[in-house]
Amino acid sequence: MSTVGKVIKCKAAVLWEAHKPFTIEDIEVAPPKAHEVRIKMVATGVCRSDDHVISGSLVTALPAVLGHEGAGIVESVGEGVTCVKPGDKVIPLFSPQCGKCRICKHPESNFCCQSTLTQSQGTLLDGTTRFSCKGKPIHNFISTSTFSQYTVVDDMAVVKIDGASPLDKVCLIGCGFSTGYGSAVKVAKVTPGSTCAVFGLGGVGLSVIIGCKAAGAARIIAVDINKDKFAKAKELGATECINPQDYSKPIQEVLQEMTDGGVDFSFEVIGRLDTITSALLSSHPACGVSVIVGVPPNSQSLSINPMLLLMGRTWKGAIFGGFKSKDSVPKLVADFMAKKFPLDPLITHVLPFEKINEAFDLLRTGKSIRTVLTF
Ligand code: COD
Ligand code: ZN
Ligand code: ZN
User: Is 171 helix (H, G, I), strand (E, B) or coil?
Assistant: First the structure.
């Protein structure tokens, strides 16, 4: 029986308040309005930023359906939707591409003016949500809300991908993989033969390493305080792995000595002010490029000596690896299908959706890189 135009009753993981586990609830998902798309989720990754909401360091309206690294199949579309149709395999885009704003028209930038990332009201573009539970509205999360059997997104925040692609793998292209890989190939523009340092070896940091290797870096130095992460980093292309806790001097000095004054490209993929500074200082003062990928919690800020940049260093950052999402996600999926990069090594656990709290425990204890939840 067709569900088109009807409210769908299904299961979702609802976060009612911060510092509490998710509860699997029976929710109602209203049909998509104009320029909206209802998606049957097939798989979703669990990303550190979801955990930041639970810990309270990333503030968004609650209760909410979190999750932003998913893949699914279009169930129905609202009026005026032309970019996807029922049955299409799609990836929801937490970093949308409206195609009309100043930034979407800019050849390089990707942070669309319609992005909801810097606001926390937790709705679709029209200011409302399609989710409800026990008669109460449930908020959206950054245009996506993938921790639900069905979700509704704005059409600027979804893209069609290759119908042959395995959704339980390419879901990672919805956040972690693209964020890391793009930071290397698009934001830093790593050059062949260069030397790179990657701080933080979670799913995003490892994806930076995949990008550095794809770009032809000669040395990729991986930095983490958890040495259990080193084997995977080496498998993916790190040439050396170092633990700051093994040295009595600051890690930037160690890196400067190892690399004749500093690396060509450094990446902070942890989200801490001290490691953002270390990554900056480990890049060469005259020719280095340092890229901020991680975001420290609670709007913390840094003060730095301008001389650190005046000799020629570049300090930059980007969301979603600098990729324009609608343009790039289908291409990244095609590149994965053409075996240009792997995703399997990033997926350490696959669990049924109902075990979502277990997936977050694995992330918090450092035991997983990425857990993929399947519906
Ligand atoms: N020194 C070295 N390594 C450290 C330190 C330290 N002081 N502290 C932690 N680490 C290591 C950990 O051992 C771990 O291996 C790694 O850093 C972090 O990995 P994860 O698994 O926690 O995180 P990822 O890879 O899933 O994500 C990291 C981000 C930094 C991208 C994420 O947390 C973040 O800040 N996201 C916001 C930025 C963004 O683009 N958001 C959009 C949606 S995600
Ligand atoms: Zn993420
Ligand atoms: Zn735009």
Answer: helix
Instruction: Give me ligand 1 centre to Cα 6, in Å.
Output: 40
pLDDT band at residue 57, thresholds of 50, 70 and 90? confident
**Spatial contact of 11 and 24, defined as CB atoms under 8 Å apart:** yes
DSSP for residue 186? I
DSSP string, 200-240: --SHHHHHHHHHHHHTT-SEEEEE-S-GGGHHHHHHHT-SE
Contact 31, 78 (CB under 8 A): yes
Q: What angle do CA 193, 197, 198 make, to 5 degrees?
A: 125
Q: Name the CATH superfamily, with its identifier, for domain 177-321.
A: NAD(P)-binding Rossmann-like Domain (3.40.50.720)
The pLDDT tens digits for 214-237 are 999 999 999 999 999 999 999 999
Concerning whether 68 is annotated as a catalytic residue, the answer is yes
d(CA 287, CA 313): 5
Q: Measuring from atom 20 of ligand 1, which residue has the nearest CA?
A: 202
Separation CA 112–CA 329 (nearest Å): 15
Determine which residue's CA is closest to atom 6 belonging to ligand 1. 225
Judge contact between 202 and 220, C-beta under 8 A: no
Neighbours of 137 (CB within 10 A): 15
Alpha carbons 294 and 273: distance in angstroms, whole number: 9
